Amino acid sequence: MKQVAYHEYASQALPILSKGAFLTTAHGDKRNTMTIGWGNIGFIWGKPVFTAMIRHSRFTHELIETSGEFTVSFPFGDQGKALSLCGTKSGRDLDKFAAANLQTVPGQKIATPVINLAGLHYECQTVYRQDMSPSDLVPAFQSKWYGDTDYHTLYYGEIVACYVTE
């Protein structure tokens, strides 16, 4: 494991994100991971921040609302099958970790684990959250992405740990 600056692998992380990364959260004895394809790595309020978008209907939304933290794991190798499963099944209905044969390791600075795979890992504590306002979204995005009106909450997570594992 190698500690790195949050932006050191950004040019690699964003193309990986467009193909899928794992966002994991946990609260109490419940945990879940989901596939994300959208997000933002930035610098806000003097802090490194990852912005994640999670739909209200997702089990992950329920958990992150209570935990206030999440991890993001950008896989360096092929995780297509696991990403597909974690992006199409609900953690309410099955243990995605077992079904996708994913192992976790404890977070270094937060209670939420990270996926144990070769990749870049962010540990994030939510510093701001905002529900989308449909009236503020351009109509083209409204019809393309939200025909079912299942809007996202945006979670701004301060990146409190960032590292690469092989």
Structure, described:
It comes from Acetonema longum DSM 6540. GO terms for molecular function: FMN binding; oxidoreductase activity, acting on the CH-NH group of donors, NAD or NADP as acceptor. InterPro entries: Flavin_Rdtase-like_dom, Flavoredoxin, Split_barrel_FMN-bd. Belongs to the flavoredoxin family. The protein is α+β, with helices and mostly antiparallel strands. It has one domain: Pnp Oxidase, Chain A (Roll), CATH 2.30.110. It is built from five helices and ten strands, in the order E-H-E-E-E-E-H-E-H-H-E-E-E-H-E. Strands 1, 2, 3, 4, 5, 6, 9 and 10 form an eight-stranded antiparallel beta sheet that branches. Strand 7 (about 105) and strand 8 (about 115) form a beta hairpin. The longest helix has 10 residues, at about 10-20. The protein is globular, with a radius of gyration of 15 Å. The model has no long low-confidence stretch (mean pLDDT about 95).
